[in-house]
Predict the 3D structure of the following.
Amino acid sequence: SFIMHFIYASTALLATATLSIAAPAADVVGRKTFQVAQVAHGTVRKNGPIQMLKTYEKYAKVGAQAPPSVVQAARAAQQSGSVAANPEENDQAYLCPVNVGGTTLNLDFDTGSADLWVFSSLMTKSEQAGHSIYKPSSSAKKLQGASWNISYGDGSGASGSVYADKVVVGGVTATSQAVEAATSVSAQFTQDQDNDGLLGLAFSSINTVQPQQQTTFFDTVKSSLAKKLFTVDLKAGQAGTYDFGYIDSSKYTGSISYVPVDDSQGFWGFTAGGYSVGSGNSTTSSGNIGSAIADTGTTLLYLPTSVASAYYKKVRGAKIDNQQGGYVFPCSSSTPDFVVSIGGKPFTVPGKYINYAPIDQSGEQCFGGIQPNTGIGFTIFGDIFLKAMFVVFDQSTGSPRLGFAQQ
Ligand SMILES: C[C@@H](SC(=N)N)c1ccc(Cl)cc1
């Protein structure tokens, strides 16, 4: 199904209010005291050399220099790892094996949301059917009073309670990660028995846990990674990878072009430039695409309506089919490449990726991988785009940035 994940993260207003309550003035008659429960945030095992190296780095501007032994020990302790991203049918989503509290679950890594939620033993047996299930392990600590509720624009959603437990992704370990155990999920999720939950990789500012917002897996382990970044290398119809803490230069061609990220909405936001349809001399090109996000959790490529219209003018028999919810065309029509400028460099989505899939068994009409971003308000570079690229989601410099290269 062409489900587009939307996210309406519930606000953290309550948590903000709680945190901003001023302590009563000491001289107030009948002074009252109050307690604020401290809940373990996502954490990783602290490591001496890494902590020492951070101290040396903190005072580097006043001449502190870490001894080679500290640098060497810290480097040895820093984490990095890689996990397979296995495509579902039609590359609708990509699922990665993750060890959550001792059980391996297949999770949809989603750079467009910030909750790590899983199918759990707290759900009814019928809802659990066919899925791998998280059962809070003996090492799990329930976050008393914490809850979460996430909803997506296609009407899907999930909710439940929260535990702190060990999570391992490609050998990278978060010793105490907020694991959002579902008590209820919508039909779209129960029906997709390949998918045991989501691992959010957007910014923790849109995590939905209340009353105390929690960190994503990446934010939890970030300080322990050799480099504070992860890379995404999705592929068409075959397994790709998510790598944490390092850049594997064998996974891309040419050089990586970096652009600044606007994380004000909690997404990996950036500005996309001009575009062209087709390759060689039969190209059309026009104005800027504008604000966009890099989103592994969205299947298709959602572009401004004028850009989508310009693209399908070049596809024989293309039309909008409201019953199907977007552009369709004869499966026999050829689909041109789509080229977009990011950071002043051209990036090409091969035309074959834009013939997404037949709309039915007859195989006559096919659904487009490019669709208009009507009602979204920004461009979404989803998997149709990402599976042609190698992308670096980078927090290793002062402010976040995205790196793009063709694969
Ligand atoms: C970021 C994606 S949802 C996701 N990847 N979890 C998104 C957000 C808002 C709209 Cl309107 C449509 C799609």
In short: The first strand starts at residue 81 and ends at 87. Confidence is low (pLDDT under 50) at residues 1-28. Residues 4-7, 110, 112-113, 153, 267, 295, 297-298, 376, 380 surround ZSS (CB under 6 Å). The helical segments are 13-20, 48-58, 68-77, 125-128, 187-191, 217-221, 305-312, 383-386.
